[in-house]
Amino acid sequence: MKRYPLKIIKAMTPPIIWDMAHSIAHPQPKQYSGDYKTWSEARTLTTGYDTPLILEKVKNAALRVKHGEAAFERDSVNFDHIEYSWPVLAGLLWIASVNENTLSAIDIGGSLGSSYYQNKNFLSHVRPLTWSIVEQKHFVQFGNQHLADEHLKFYDDLKNCAAVVHPQVILLSSVLPYLEKPYDLLHTIKELRPQYIIVDRTPFFTGNTPDRITIQKSSPKVYDASYPARFLNERKFLRFFTSDYEIVADWKALAGDINLGKETATDKGFIFKIK
Question: Which of 84, 95, 131, 227 is the most exposed place for a label (fewest CB within 10 A)?
Answer without folding.
Answer: 84
